[in-house]
Amino acid sequence: MNGVIDYKGYEQPHYQVESADAGAEIRQYGSHLVAEVAMRGDRSTAITRGFRVLARYIFGGNAQSRKIEMTVPVSQLPEGSDGWVVRFMMPAGMSAGTLPVPNDSRIRFVTVPPSRQAVRRFSGWPTSNLLQRQSGELAQWIDARGLTIREGPFYYFYDSPMTLPWQRRNEVAFRLGEG
């Protein structure tokens, strides 16, 4: 499964919806390559700092001064008790070997393996309180269906900060266990 262009003209990871119910979906994601950076601190500070590091890279802050197409979503995952990983998906057809070398040594390339995820979409400013509430509701949805959370929550942000709150696409997701 490769990335597809289907959100406001931006490529995103390909997924298939297995089922949808009560505002949530079960999705099967294909493998995709990301550039990621680990940041310490609170969630809001980490996403801002991580976004800046990765944006510099794709806008030419690399050994070849080469620009890389923007994709969606910007992903944020918890790492340990006080850390976060911020990710940009790399365009389909690129590999760690064909991407320009980052000027910032904190950036690493990771192939995200295929995964089955429960995902809930919502609008609004992605404050920590809103993300926590959406995560809790999705976790209850998962539990009510007898599914098992393997990892998460993950946060996916699709729109620029200039997008009006009610027009923003945000998602919370959990990777599901098998069976």
UniProtKB/TrEMBL annotation:
Q: Which superkingdom is the protein from? A: Bacteria
Q: Which Pfam families match?
A: SOUL (PF04832)
PANTHER family in UniProt: HEME-BINDING PROTEIN-RELATED (PTHR11220), SOUL HEME-BINDING FAMILY PROTEIN (PTHR11220:SF58)
- Give the protein's recorded name: SOUL heme-binding protein
Q: What is the lineage of its organism?
A: Bacteria, Pseudomonadati, Pseudomonadota, Alphaproteobacteria, Rhodobacterales
